[in-house]
Amino acid sequence: MIRAVSIFIFFFLLLEGLKGQGDKRGLELSQSLMIEGQVRCMVLPTLFPTNLSKQNQPFSYWFNKIDRQYGSLRATLQTADIVIAPMLATLSDPPFSGAPRYGVPEDWFRSISSIGITHACLSNATTLRAKSSSVTRRTDILREEGVVPLGLFDSGQADEIHCVIKEVKGLRLALFSFVYPFEDYRGQFGMSGFDVDRFTQFYSEHKDSIDCWIAIPCWKNAQYGSVSSASQKALMNALSSVGFNVVIGYSGNHMQVETMVYDSSGLLLFDVGSALPASVSQTGSGALVEFSIDTATKAFQNPGLIPIYPLLVDQSEESELELMAVFGRDLEVSEYSINLSQDQKNLFESFMNKFRQSKPPMVKEFYYPQTLAIRNDASGAVRLQKGWEVDSTIQSEPRGYGVQFLQLPREIILDTTYYQHLKGYSVFEINGRFHYVLGKNLTLEEAERVLGLLRLKSHEFAQIVQIKGSTLIPTTNTD
Predict the structure, then answer these.
(1) d(Cα 256, Cα 245) in Å, to the nearest integer?
(2) What is the pLDDT of residue 436?
(3) Which of 323, 370, 285, 340 has the alpha carbon at shortest distance from 29?
(4) Separation of alpha carbons 440 and 411, rounded Å
(5) How do residues 304-352 score in pLDDT, each as one tens digit?
(6) What percent of the chain is modeled with pLDDT above 70?
(7) Mapping DSSP to helix (H, G, I), strand (E, B) and coil, where does residue 145 land?
C-alpha cells in the first residue's frame, strides 16, 4: 500500500517538477517507469550510521535523523521493485559508535527501513565484530520492518548455500551477498563467504528455474586500500564466469565506476561507494545503480547511475550541522541548490566532474527531479502507513532568513517592553558595526511578512538578510 501511495505522489510531483526544467533526461526516465513488463532494480551506495548521538534517544530522534539524512531518496526508491542496500551497521548498547563497529540501537534499523529498502546486505566486517545475539536481533528487526537480510545463514542452513530467491512479475531472481574472496562459505555467525564448488553445484541444479543471478559482494581486499583496474576486472569476471548476471560490489569506501560494463546479458560494477561519509568533517561519494530486466526476453535494459552527494546543511537555530544525501543533479537545477556557500559549490562541482569523467561513456546518468515537497509527502506517507506518530523536522522551504531593522556603530540594549514588536531580536557584530536582526531561521515567505510588519512600524530601511554563520547576506532592497 505504501509503495503504491508513494508512486502516485512521486509521479504527480515529478511531472510538476519537470515543467521548465529544460532537461529531457528526467522526462524520458519518468516515462520509462510506466512501461509494463520490466522489473526495475536499484542498488544503493553503502549505508552506515553517521553523525549520531552516542547515548540513548527516543524513537523520534532516530527517525528524524534518518529522515533528514536519506529522506530525499525515499520517493525514488519506492518506485522500484527491488532496492538492495549494502549496510555496515550492527546492534549495540550505548555509547553508540562509528567505525569499525558502527553500533546503533534498534530504532536506527527500524528508521532506515522506512526509506524504501527491500533487501539489506549484511555479510561484512560489522557482523564479524558483533555479538551473536546482536546479529540475530538485527535480523529479526529488519524482517519485522519488511527488509530481507542477505548474506547470513539461518540456523537450519548448515549444509546449504545462502541464497534468497525473489519472484517479481513472473521473473525469478537469485540474490546473493558474501565476503569475497573468503572461502569459508559459512563463517562466524553464519556469515556467508563464497565457495566455488558449492555455488557451481547449486547453479547447475537451479539454473533452469532462475532468470537472473545477482551478487552483491563485499570486497575483502578493497577495505584496506585502492584496488587497481586490472584487479577490479579480475574479481568481477571471476564471479561473472561462474554464472552471475549482475555483480555490484561494495567496501564502504569511495565509488569506483570506471570499470563498469554491461550488455543485454548482465552488468558488472566494482564499488558503489557510500551514501554519506562517516562524519561531517569528511567527504564521501557514491552512486545509486539502476537497471531493468525485461520480463519476456530476460534482457537487461536501461542501466544507469545516479550520483549521490553528501550535502552539509544547517538544520536548526542552534546551528546543528547535518549531512543530507541528495541526488547530484538536484544540486545543479533544483531548490536544493539555493544559497550554497562557495566552498560547498566548489566541492560539489569537483565531485560531479570526477563522477562524469570516471563514468564509462556508454553508461547513462539518470535524474529523478526532487523537491522538498516530494520528500515531505513521501515522509508523511511512510509515517502514516507505519503508524509512527513523529513530528517531522523536515522544512518545506529553505530557512535561515531574518530581517535586519537597525545598524549602529556601537551596541545598545533595546527596550522590548516598549518595542514589543522587536522581542527576540539578535545582534551580529560585523566589521565593527552592530546589525540588529529579527528572526534567524525564517523561511523567505515568513521573512517577507516580518519585513512588511516592521515597515508598518516605520522601520523603512529594514531588509531581509540570509544568515550564514556570522555573516549577513542582503536579499532585498531597502527602498
Answers:
(1) 19
(2) 92
(3) 370
(4) 19
(5) 999 999 988 765 444 467 888 999 888 887 766 666 777 778 888 899 9
(6) 80
(7) coil
Domain of residue 192, residue span: 2-386
pLDDT, average across residues 33-43: 81
Question: What is the DSSP-derived secondary structure letter of residue 64?
Answer: H
Whether 20 has a pLDDT exceeding 90, the answer reads no
- What secondary structure letter does DSSP report for 6? H
Cis peptide before 369 (omega within 30 of 0): no
**Whether 198 and 300 share a structural domain:** yes
Query: If residue 425 lies in a helix (H) or strand (E), which one and from where to where?
Result: strand 425-430
Cell 519585513 belongs to: 451
Rounded to a whole number of angstroms, the distance between the first and last alpha carbons of the chain is 53
Residue 201 lies in a domain: yes
Q: Are strands 463-468 and 401-408 parallel, antiparallel or unpaired?
A: antiparallel
- Degrees to nearest 5, angle at CA 28 with 24 and 29: 120
Instruction: Strands of 129-199 (E only): list them.
Output: 148-150, 164-168, 171-176, 179-180
Number of domains in the chain: 2
For residue 92, being part of any structural domain is answered with yes
**Residue of 2, 58, 6, 7 lying closest to 391 (CA atoms):** 58
Q: In this predicted structure, what is the pLDDT of residue 285?
A: 81
- Average pLDDT over the chain, rounded to whole? 82
**pTM for this entry:** 0.77
Spatial distance between the Cα atoms of 145 and 141, rounded to a whole number of angstroms: 6
The pLDDT tens digits of the residues spanning 273-294 come to: 999 987 766 667 899 999 999 9
Same domain, 136 and 224: yes
CA dist 306 to 240, 247, 272, 364, Å? 24, 17, 10, 9
pLDDT in tens, 59-87: 999 999 999 999 999 999 999 999 999 99
The answer to whether position 339 is within a domain reads: yes
- Cα separation, 398 vs 169, whole angstroms: 41
Same domain, 468 and 320: no
In the prediction, which pLDDT does 74 show?
A: 94
Q: Are residues 370 and 440 in the same domain?
A: no
Query: What local confidence, expressed as pLDDT, does residue 118 receive?
Result: 97
Residue with cell string 549602529: 408
